[in-house]
Please model this.
Amino acid sequence: MGKKNNVTFNDIAKYTNFSKTTISRYFNNPDSLTLENQKIISDALVKLNYKENKVARILANGKTEFIGIIIPNFYHHYYSEMLNQILSTYETFGYKFLVFVGNENEETERRYIQELMAYKIEGLIVLSHTLSSSELADLQIPIVTIEREDEHVCSVNTDNYMGGVQATCLLAKRNCDILIHINSPTSPDLPAYGRIQGFQDTCKEQQLNHRIIYRELESQHEQVKSQLENVLKEVDSNYQGMKKGIFISNDTHANVLLNLLVRKYGTLPDDYLIVGFDNSPISTEAIIPISTVGQQIDKLAFEAVSLLVEQMNERKKRKPKPLKEPIHKVITPVLFHRDTT
Amino acid sequence: MGKKNNVTFNDIAKYTNFSKTTISRYFNNPDSLTLENQKIISDALVKLNYKENKVARILANGKTEFIGIIIPNFYHHYYSEMLNQILSTYETFGYKFLVFVGNENEETERRYIQELMAYKIEGLIVLSHTLSSSELADLQIPIVTIEREDEHVCSVNTDNYMGGVQATCLLAKRNCDILIHINSPTSPDLPAYGRIQGFQDTCKEQQLNHRIIYRELESQHEQVKSQLENVLKEVDSNYQGMKKGIFISNDTHANVLLNLLVRKYGTLPDDYLIVGFDNSPISTEAIIPISTVGQQIDKLAFEAVSLLVEQMNERKKRKPKPLKEPIHKVITPVLFHRDTT
DNA sequence: TTGTACGCGTTATCAC
DNA sequence: GTGATAACGCGTACAA
Model:
């Protein structure tokens, strides 16, 4: 707003001998003008090279059409793709997105949120795990979280339990002698815990020989590799000669495991089956395409924005009825059967 | 701005018996108040639960502190990481980012830009290749492009030529009998063309037996795979018994090539060396860690925002001197020597 | 150090 | 169908 040569409604009004009000109406309720006058104004807009100023409109009507996003990182393809899909909803809902990368630091994320609040975002989408849902709820604006702890706020999550069941059933069908789930220690608060539960329940129901191996895998590639190398040694020696079905935390880890096996045996041995999670690009680009459980990221994103828009619209009514209880939507994952099963 | 219970400077002023101006000064020039009075106001802010409103401030002083970003996609790790690094500059410069995903459609991107202009962004970062730099320059706001055609606008690019040279020299040092560069047909306008040029010049200077193979690789995994399968057949038969050094467009493609070789021969044959580009995660996570030329994405991003901020600051001066010529910054890439060379 | 008065560009309200 | 006027919340001469 370079303090000069900004053509405003006033200029248009003078030029056309209408009032500012009529110019405003031309934009917000054109049908209330005669076609003639619409033409006059639209010509003037071109002639004077008018550029609309939504900041002024915000101040006047209170609608920023901003949604804030806090995303934890871009390292996992899952987050990038989720952001991609969220941003793409602009075409449907018209909301603009102010994006911050949370650095897993509480104070930093609080600062980001304050900044977003200062810009009068109408709603907030949180993917980061740093702040508790009760703190988020205190912000008193529409919020949707995705795939994180969500007790006090609306959320959209993958049906992780179903994902666990799908993976487990696939391995079961292949007549494995032992089913193994490898994962990082996971809090039961998190939606992702459902995968573990789904695995466990399915194994118990079908009375399958199974085991869960917890290892800290949320680190760099080399650490993950050495962790899984140890796991593999243990599995190799404990379940020799048995057909092993492994359901592992995600595709990145599945790929590490796969590579360890292929480098050890020259190929994926017949007695090893692997299922990952996420359907990330690595699952198709691996040396052997990896079976995986895929989140429907497009749907998750769309439902998230959709759920947020509902809340935002409700708030704009003269008599808003705030939700009694947070709404939690669930999206079913899809099993991709590839060459590791 | 829920049209109610918004505490404003007016409320603070009444409560503290100061004027609005003094309240404003408390925020923008606190030193001009006595410490006493600062305390009085800061207490009042807490008591009345004041929330700042930057939208109003924008309208008053014209500074949105918004930067618009147009990114083409999130599929390549390069773009995700670049966005990550750009967003991270908030900590340094304080600018907020409005992000749009360009869908390679001109009209769509023009709409995005219009929307950004309506929100009075102070500058624009363009990663997408859809619109020409001359069209961008016509927007008359500070612009920086990254790694795309940039004749008429400021830009930050990797020294692609140097990257090509580095990759080629590495292969040359390994005493390859034939150096092969595989790439998609690339316009000389694009910075990425430098990689091809760097390869070619180095080969010529060092009088190395070389060849450039162009194939359309900007497509889905399966297509890339079958394209490279054909290339491999040709190379296999044409250069039998020779040591082949392959420099290929990027790490994703390098990985496909590597997997084809490993699946064919059980491992990477001694007469094949591979160098990719991007230092993307796949290069370390591949079945055999891939040598690659890495962009310094953090530096690229920082320089881009930095260059933009300079232009934006210049514009705020009473007598702005617009740049005579666009500035083009260049960042040197880094060679990662791994197991494929 | 503090206050007055006005401007930023649009929308909302009420009147005609 | 159109217009006058007052918001919206803050910044900034200019004055005191």
